[in-house]
Amino acid sequence: MLELRPNCECCNRDLPADSAGAFICSFECTFCADCTQQHLHGRCPNCGGELLPRPPRSTAALAKYPASTKRIHNPQGCNKVLTA
Ligand SMILES: [Zn+2]
Ligand SMILES: [Zn+2]
Question: How do the domains of the chain map onto residue ranges?
């Protein structure tokens, strides 16, 4: 089951679990569409893996299987890619 982290690791933007627009790698490092496309070019800065669209979880499923509320904000990783 996906953790569904609540925010973008780069810019700390909220990424609701029930809507599209979030991108994740195989370790669930989580980024918004803007950071994924403009800064990261579809690669996770932490593990080098491919970032793919995260499937939204329905409201009914969220009631039963809540999304993670633990925010992970790691802007250094994003700057590393920007200057690479
Ligand atoms: Zn972002
Ligand atoms: Zn990763």
Answer: 22-77
